[in-house]
Amino acid sequence: MSKCCGVSPCNCRVTAGTGTTVTGNGSAANPYVVSAAGGGGATAIAVTDSETIDFDLTGTGTAGDPYEITGSVILDPAPPGGGSNLLHEGPNGVYAECADVRTCFSATDGATYDASTGEIGAKVSTDAGNQTSIGSDGGIYTPAGSPLVQAQDSTTVDVTVSGTGTAADPYEVGAAVILDPTPPQGGTNLIGSGPEGLYLECADVRGCISAGEGASYDPATGVVEARLSTDAGTPSPSAATVACTRRRRAAAGRPSSRRRTRRPWTSP
User: Is residue 113 helix, strand or coil?
Assistant: First the structure.
């Protein structure tokens, strides 16, 4: 039975708050009744997507049609590295399997790789003389006494290795300069190699030049001279030398020749 907080009718004041209603006057016959049945209006709900979750909101927020919020994972269709996204979405969630990532790897010199199984191994050279192999225990095996030093030529040096690397038979490394037998411009290689080393002498290069008009050249000695024309009127070499000397003396302000003055002879 309702009980008033004072004399009947009740003088207490009861007011409705958000989402509630109040009925009655507080008397025994008509007591206050406070009800909460969504009377304050529908609750406002909004959703905001993130960079990785896409939200979806349905319903009106009533007892018969409540709000329903769902989220879906966002998979980048164009990853920043320019490759393909290895993540997938299926009916049971997001996944990435070994088969998806095995294509990210490859093998180069000295290694093997099977992209279908993901197996990585060592690649042993099949070159002649190689004694390294895969041992019975699956490891890389080189028999005792196998050469640990190998020769590797370059474009200009031919390297050789002999010996077994023991105290009695140590490794001996030799090298020889490689001289191009057919130089790229089609000429003959002027560099020679002898017991004392490489060499290039004057006699080797004198054949690289020749004389044209107005010059003479002796490839045996390397002497270059001016060659005078044999046309008529051309002074001889001696006359040309005299004329050249006179011009130099005149330019220097000196007489071109000296004259002797004769004195009269008198008897003693």
Answer: strand
Give the torsion sign (CA, 242, 244, 248, 250).
positive
Looking up tokens 């009740």, which residue turns up? 10
Q: What is the pLDDT of residues 13-72, one digit of tens each?
A: 778 777 778 888 878 788 888 877 654 556 778 899 999 999 999 998 888 888 999 999
> Are 251 and 258 spatial neighbours (Cβ–Cβ below 8 Å)?
no
Q: Is 75:85 a contact under the CB 8 Å cutoff?
A: yes
The verdict on pTM exceeding 0.70 is no
C-alpha to C-alpha distance for 92 and 115, rounded to whole angstroms: 27
Instruction: Give DSSP secondary structure letters for 63-108.
Output: SSS--EEEEEEPPPSS-TTSS----EEETTEEE--HHHHGGG----
Question: What is the β-pairing status of strands 68-73 and 53-58?
Answer: antiparallel
Q: What angle do CA 84, 90, 94 make, to 5 degrees?
A: 65
Question: Measured between alpha carbons, how far is 223 from 47 in angstroms, rounded to an integer?
Answer: 99
**CA contacts within 13 A on the Cβ side of 7:** 0
Helix %, strand %, coil % of the chain (to 5): 10, 25, 65
Q: In sequence order, which ranges of the chain are alpha helices (DSSP H)?
A: 98-101, 202-205, 237-251
Q: Which of 60, 59, 57 is nearest to 47 (CA)?
A: 57
Instruction: Quote the Cα angle for 256-252-247, to 5°.
Output: 55
Q: Cα separation of 203 and 212, whole Å?
A: 20
DSSP state string for 126-172: -STT---EE-TTSSEE--TT--S------SSEEEEEES-SSSSS--E
